Structures are given as C-alpha cells and as structure tokens.
Amino acid sequence: MSTALPTAVESPVVGSPAALRGHRLPLVLVAFTATAATLLAAGCSGDDPLTTPDGSTIVTSTTRIADVNVVAADRDTTRTCLAPTAPDDGQTDVARIVVTDPALLDAVCALGMGPKVTAVTAAAGSVPAYLGPQLTSVPTIGATPDASAATAASPDVVLTSPQSAASARAFSDARVVSVAPDADWQKRFQAVADGLGRSAAGERLLDEFRTEASKTGVRLDAAHNQISLVRFAGSSEMIAGTDSFAGGILGMIGIQRPAPQRNPRSFTVTDQNFKDADGDLIYVSFNGPEGQAHGEEVLRSDRWLDMGAPTWKRVLVVDDEIWYRTSGLAAAWLVLNDVKESIDGNSANF
C-alpha cells in the first residue's frame, strides 16, 4: 500500500438511509454538529486564524483529514481520569507518589490517584496528552533528578518499572513498587492497584469495564460487524493484529475482524494484500506527522477509494496514541467510547 491516512477530528458523516439500503453495511456513523462544520469551513477560508471581536485566537478542532472524519475530535481530556478510589480495608493510604515510567500513569489515572502524583522522572512532554491536565501539569524532573527536585517531590511511594528503576534511587526513603510496563495491560493495571493498596478497587474497575464492553457488543450487534484497523507510518501501512491494544478492545466488545485480519500479529500492507484493509468500517490512525502525511496520500488514492468501506464513507480517523501507542484502563475506556460514538447499533434496520 503506497498511500496514506489523515488524522481527522470529527464524527462520521454518512449518506441517506435510502442510499445505503440493500448493502450489507450495518454501521451508521454519528454526524458532527453544524457548529463544528461551520467553524471548519470558516477556518479553511483563509490563512489567518479565527479570532474573537477582541482579537483573541479561537482554538478549533481538526474534524476531517483527507475527507475522512475524526472520531472524538472535541475530546475533553479533563474527564479521562476516573473517580478517586478508596484503599483496601486496613491499608494506610498513599499520600504522595512519584512515577518513574510514564507508561504507568494510565493506571494511576484510572484509579483516580492522579492528584497524588507529585513528579514524573522523565523528560518534559513524556506524559501522554490524553491523560489530561491532571497529569500533564505534574512536574517532569528528568530521569536523574537532582536533590532539590527529589526533596520537593517527597514521595512515600515510587512507582517504577525495571527499565526506569535507576530513577527511583533519588528517593531512598520511599517505598518502591516495581511493575513491568510491557505486561498485559489488565495485569499491569492490577499490579499497580495492588502496589498502591487498592487491590479490591482494581478488580472492581476491571470487572466494570469488561461488563460494559460486553453490553456494548450486544447493543451494537458486534458479532455481525467486521471492522478493519489500519495504521499509517511514514512510508507504509500496517493492519493491526488482534493482539494490538485496539484489536484486543474490539475483541472484548465482540466485534469481528475481516477474515485476513484475524491474526494476533500486525502485518504490513503490500500491493498484493492491499484489499485486506477493507471491511464494513475502517478505523485508520497516523503514527506521527510523517504517518499522517503518508496516510493522507493513501486515503486520497484511487485504489483506496475504490474499496468498499471508502466508497460508502465508512472510514474514520482515531487517535493513534490512545488506540495503539499506549495502553491501560483509562485508554481502554476512551477506545470503547470512541466505538460507541461512531457506531449505531440500530443501523441493521436500514
């Protein structure tokens, strides 16, 4: 495959029910608001940014990329983290946490313990943006923090991983909890919950997610939907395997994958297997700016547009960081909600 996908930031736009009648496409995309469309059109009318009467710049979301709608373009990251959880019976609660590996922050966020994080021993910009201001505003003090930064953080628990364990040495008075970030995301989440004295809460939250994923599958008639997952990199495309983070969430929902995509491992798209990317609906994502540039080229190509899903406007852009490059319970809820927002379970009536 030699063309690319753009990263849009809008909900789906579809043809009329009459246009879809007679086709096996049991998916209906959620339409974007007229306000977002108006802002987008205004933003494209010139090079100058939109401004308020007093001259302040109006920040607008990208809702379409290469004529493809972006899912959750107006995502509110202030709502990513879940409600605070209580410690297990008899446990002394954690008051201050330092995290040495940003990959572990998702679990902290899902446990509602973000406000307890006093520092992250990583470079600036290492905290995933989807975690929102609760965690992106936490000081990042570098992998080898100096004495003053360590003193200011003053943790009673340091949450670390084998890869970032050296950073924990700056906090000699704190209890160290080590969790392997490359473990299965559900096991990693439970390990973090155990280490922070919230074993019961961790089990409950995972059970709540599994239950909601299953209910969502029933509502969406998931077993009769075949969804394709395509990721664009700088010069190639990958079809995400069932063992990918997003692939695993779709599996928990009960959504089917097209026959060529029912493999645990991801694989590269080539001229020979190009049409393996097709499905009832295709979720595409871009791995970085180069991936978006390549993706936009592919998404506009005749070869791509001749496939079934693109022909019927059944292609959506999703956030690559959330769907693939990170993983955890907080991200899992975002993926699940993206699916809910972009598929109508009653579409089989058309």
From TrEMBL:
Main subcellular localisation: other
Record bears the keyword Signal: yes
Location in the cell: Cell envelope
Similarity section: Belongs to the bacterial solute-binding protein 8 family.
One Pfam match: Peripla_BP_2
Annotated Gene Ontology cellular component terms: outer membrane-bounded periplasmic space
Alphabetized UniProt keyword annotations: Signal, Transport
Name used for this protein in its record: Putative ABC transporter substrate-binding protein
Species of origin: Gordonia soli NBRC 108243
Domain (Fe/B12 periplasmic-binding): residue spans on this chain: 96-347
InterPro entries xref list: ABC_transptr_periplasmic_BD, Bact_iron-sidero_bind
GO biological process: iron coordination entity transport
